Amino acid sequence: MKITDVATREELAPFTERSQSKAIGYVAFNWAFIAAIFCGVAAWTNPLTILVGIALLGGRQLAFAALMHDCGHRALFPGDRANAVIGQWLCAYPILSDVHRYAAGHQKHHAFAGTRKDPDLPNYQAYPITKESLHRKIVRDLTGRTGWKALRAAWRRGRTELAKAPWNGNALAGHAIVNGAMFAVLHAFGEGLLYAMWPAAYLTSYMLIARLRQVAEHGAVPDLFDLDPRMNTRTTLVRWWEKLFVAPFHLNYHLEHHFQANVPCYHLPAFHHFLESKGIYAETEFPNGYRQLFAKTVPA
């Protein structure tokens, strides 16, 4: 099924409209949340708050990935330049990514979803898996082994562009500038050591959260090789606390995103209800939270 089978261009227009104020608000909120995490740990520094801070920062790094994703679709901000510049410097570079390179690869996922040409298949094709297999994956994520692979991949991608300026394709320089600025701000407040929480989160909690997100979107779906998005993609209904970690900025509405990729994240809940009103979800199940979801993807 295609979205044009059930909705007119006029009906879709309100959902694809991009808002400058909402986009700025989402980016600013994420940076403010990160600042609040660092402030909280600085005020009550102990092993427990550090661990909680690292877990929360992993969720905020996923939030940057969600915003970068929308910028890659040119859907977050009304202007293409804002999507490119803000998406790069304030969303992608902090998490050692590159919005332009990401967008080029991600478009192939949308083009080939529901087929064996989907480049993201290795992330979720094996599901459902056993609890033992999931446990091994979690251990790899939380011990930094997955994150170390991601670091090496970022280096391999970026080293060929080292001769360029950071605003003209040199992603590694951009990573260094943005992360260096984060350290400098914390150092100016006498809390430079707390910056270590950011790479620690990237290497551990972010990798685990990103894995859970990938599985939620396409793992153990009704039919991974059916072109109908309702068969190859999933939306999960989440609780407020799950939004802090695995589903920031309505990232859980992934089925809606595959129906219409240029709907900004801030319109996805309303778009979900619109599609429900059209009756196209009459036979579609939505897991209520990640516990129910993983009962399907990691059965007992």
Q: What is this structure, in a nutshell?
A:
This protein is mainly α and 300 residues long. It has helices at residues 9-16, 20-43, 47-72, 80-92, 99-112, 131-142, 145-158, 171-188, 197-203, 205-218, 229-232, 240-245, 254-259, 268-277, 290-297. Helix 3 packs antiparallel against helix 4 (80-92) and helix 6 runs antiparallel to helix 10 (205-218).
Notes on the protein architecture:
The protein is built from 15 helices and no strands. The model has no long low-confidence stretch (mean pLDDT about 95). The chain has about 300 residues and is mostly helical. Helix 3 packs across helix 5 and helix 3 crosses helix 10 (about 205-220). It has a domain at about 20-225. Helix content is about 60%, strand content about 0%. The longest helix has 26 residues, at about 45-70.
**Averaged pLDDT, please?**
95
| Overall 3D shape | globular
The major beta sheet can be summarized as: none
Question: What string gives the helices and strands in order?
Answer: HHHHHHHHHHHHHHH
Question: Span from first to last CA?
Answer: 33 Å
Low-confidence sequence ranges: none
SSE topology:
Blueprint: H1 9-16, H2 20-43, H3 47-72, H4 80-92, H5 99-112, H6 131-142, H7 145-158, H8 171-188, H9 197-203, H10 205-218, H11 229-232, H12 240-245, H13 254-259, H14 268-277, H15 290-297
For this entry, give a set of tags.
300 residues; mainly alpha; 61% helix
